[in-house]
Each structure stands twice: as structure tokens, then as C-alpha cells.
Automatic annotation (TrEMBL):
UniProt entry keywords in alphabetical sequence: NAD, Oxidoreductase
The enzyme's E.C. designation: 1.1.1.-
Domain of life: Bacteria
Official protein name in the record: 2-hydroxyacid dehydrogenase
D-isomer specific 2-hydroxyacid dehydrogenase catalytic domain residues: 4-316
InterPro entries: D-isomer_2-hydroxyacid_DH, D-isomer_2_OHA_DH_cat_dom, D-isomer_DH_NAD-bd, NAD(P)-bd_dom_sf
D-isomer specific 2-hydroxyacid dehydrogenase NAD-binding domain residues: 109-285
């Protein structure tokens, strides 16, 4: 019988199509450890992994002839899987694009608004019973409507954020991208990331993680931002050089930041936690039941397609 490993608890409805398979449902909510990663490749025909399950080249190297043929990732981001090493080992990889787009764009808007309007700081004030009442100059933030947003990575999520900014908030949209885009809203393509950073009120990161984008947002890019501007990262933590961001926030060189992801997730540095001018969310991008069900169904559809000899709907 085909053996499948599900590496985390998933919403109940998701696994029904796998009734005819021998399922191992891991109950832990933490990533696979070193031995579990190797056992996943060695002992199962298919694996449904997710964020944090680090299928690196070393793991593939340690399992000479993997029984596993398919890694059907739960999530659109797959920078935790070395796709080259997987291919070399004859293991196909898939992901769940599209299912995550709107929910993640919504969290980007949440962070933009919270950071610009100092919502986290205000909430802490109320909870600490420190609020002394409304007055005309209390907690003034950045008015977002009509301002400009810079999108770094104008893919599915980047475009969904841009649409919300344009249609919902009357913001002007600028972006950098490697390939040209046909967009259903006005947007100006800027040739250079630093130039983009210098022109916008909010800079939003929506590129995939991985070697190519690591520290794309470094001290130079942060240094190019305007003093009142906010940075929002819903992509992957290591796209932003966290130490440089902490420095910029501590010195008030930028207006603030809203983060859903962290360089050494789930560790969030004390220096960040101590700052008022940063909003910190625990990777909530897709955290809604129906979204997680859609992601799960998509990952399962890739598994069943593989074992029924059909083309994978979402190969990477
Ligand atoms: P996508 O449609 O593939 O868009 C990514 C965009 O980034 C593309 O427009 C792409 O190409 C650009 N890009 C890719 N590699 C790049 C590089 N090396 N340098 C510069 N730009 C690059 O992906 P998506 O569905 O929008 O998702 C984006 C990422 O968001 C995912 O990979 C994932 O890591 C993250 N995410 C986070 C959450 C969360 O919970 N916070 C949820 C879902 C996804 P062009 O430059 O040619 O346009």
C-alpha cells in the first residue's frame, strides 16, 4: 500500500481523498527533526510537508535511494526544500499557489494600517491602562489613503496587495520586478529597488525566500527609504536583513515596520519586541480555516495526481 506522511495536523476535511492510502499523521506542530526528515524520504512513498521541514541537499544526500517520490508542500513558499536536490533524487515537488493569495494580501493590509496608524502601540496603551483620553495631538500616525506603495515582487500576492491599495485606498502603486507585467490597475515600474524605496510611503515585500532574495532588503535599501516611510514584510523573514532593520527602527530612520515573518523564525529578537514602532505578527498570512482547507485540498490533489499517474496540478 502507498505510504504517505502528513507532517502536521491539518483541518479534518482535507484528508478525505487519501482514504485509500496508508496515512501516517504526525501530531506534533513543530518541524520535522533531522532523523524524521531522513525517515520521511526513506520510509514513505509521498510526503505532505510544510514550512520549517528543511529538506536540504544534506538530507537528500543522506538517503541514497529515497522511497519517497513526491513532496506535496502545504504552502506556496517552498524555500525550505532544495528543489534541485529533490529533482536529482527523482523526487517531484509541488506547492499551493493561489489558495494563499487574498488572505496573505489581507494580512499585508493589516500590517500597513497597523504600522502607519500605530495600532499595536495604541492597543498596548489601552491594555496597560495608560490611556489618558482623546486629544487632538494624541498618537498621530501616517494617513494611508492617497499615499504611495512600493511593491517588491509583483507576483500573485504583490498584485493582490497593489489592487487593494489602488482600489481600496486610492494609493499610487510603484513596483520593481524582473519581468514585465500586464496589470489591471495603474502602476509604475521602477528600474531599481533603492530608487523605489526612496519614492514610496510604504514598501511591501512579496518575493519568495531563498538564496537569491536573502537580505534583498539591507541597510542600503532601508537607508534609501524616507524617514516617515513604513516597511511591511509578508514574504519570508530572511529577505530582510533583520539586524539592519532593527538599527533603522531604533534610530528612527524609518517610520515603522509591520512584520509577519522573521529571519530566524519563530525566534523574534528582544530588540524588536522592545520597540514601539514595529508591529509583530506570528506568521498569520494564511491563518484562516477555509484558506488552510483550500491549501490542504490542493496539496492532497497533487499527491493523488502523482499516485494516479496524472500530471501534478502545481509542480514547482
Ligand atoms: P509569485 O506569484 O511567484 O510572486 C513572486 C514574485 O517575486 C514574482 O513576481 C517574481 O518574479 C518575484 N521574484 C521571484 N524571485 C525573485 C528574485 N530572486 N528577485 C526578485 N524578485 C523575484 O508568489 P506569490 O504567490 O505571490 O508568493 C510570494 C511569496 O510570499 C511566497 O514565495 C511565500 O514565501 C510568501 N508567502 C507568505 C505567506 C505568509 O503567511 N506570510 C503566505 C503566502 C506566501 P518577477 O520579478 O519576474 O515579477
Amino acid at each position: 500500500m502507498t505510504r504517505i506522511l502528513i507532517t502536521r495536523p491539518l483541518p479534518e476535511t482535507v484528508l478525505a481523498p487519501l482514504a485509500g492510502y496508508e496515512l501516517t499523521r504526525r501530531e506534533k506542530t513543530t518541524p520535522l527533526d533531522a532523523e524524521e526528515l531522513r525517515a520521511a524520504l526513506r520510509d514513505f512513498d509521498g510526503v505532505l510537508p510544510t514550512l520549517g521541514d528543511l529538506f536540504t541537499a544534506d538530507v537528500f544526500a543522506d538517503v541514497a535511494r529515497p522511497r519517497c517520490r513526491v513532496l506535496a508542500n502545504f504552502g506556496v513558499g517552498y524555500n525550505h526544500i532544495d528543489v534541485g536536490a529533490a529533482k536529482a533524487a527523482g523526487v517531484v515537488v509541488s506547492n499551493t499557489p493561489g489558495a494563499v493569495t487574498d488572505a496573505t494580501a489581507d494580512i499585508a493590509m493589516t500590517l500597513m494600517l497597523m504600522s502607519a496608524r500605530r495600532a499595536g502601540e495604541g492597543e498596548r496603551l489601552v491594555r496597560a491602562e495608560m490611556w489618558e483620553g482623546w486629544h487632538p495631538t494624541q498618537m498621530l500616525g501616517l494617513h494611508l489613503s492617497g499615499k504611495s506603495v512600493g511593491i517588491v515582487g509583483m507576483g500573485r500576492i504583490g498584485q493582490a496587495i497593489a489592487r487593494r491599495c489602488h482600489f481600496g485606498f486610492g494609493m499610487s502603486v510603484k513596483y520593481v520586478s524582473r519581468s514585465s507585467k500586464t496589470l489591471a490597475f495603474p502602476a509604475e515600474r521602477i528600474p531599481d529597488l533603492k530608487a523605489l524605496a526612496g519614492q514610496v510611503d510604504v514598501l511591501v515585500i512579496a518575493v519568495p525566500g531563498g538564496r537569491e532574495t536573502r537580505h534583498l532588503i539591507d541597510a542600503k535599501v532601508l537607508g534609501a527609504m524616507q524617514k516617515h516611510a513604513h516597511l511591511v514584510n509578508i514574504a519570508r523573514g530572511d529577505v530582510v536583513e533583520e539586524s539592519a532593520l532593527i538599527d533603522a527602527l531604533q534610530k528612527g530612520r524609518i517610520g515603522g515596520a509591520g512584520l509577519d515573518v522573521y529571519e530566524f523564525e519563530p525566534r523574534v529578537p528582544q530588540a524588536l519586541r522592545e520597540l514601539e514602532n514595529v508591529v509583530l505578527l506570528p506568521h498569520l498570512g494564511t491563518a484562516a480555516l477555509e484558506v488552510r482547507e483550500d491549501m490542504g485540498r490542493m496539496a492532497v490533489a497533487n499527491l493523488t495526481a502523482y499516485f494516479e499517474g496524472r500530471d501534478l496540478p502545481n509542480p514547482v
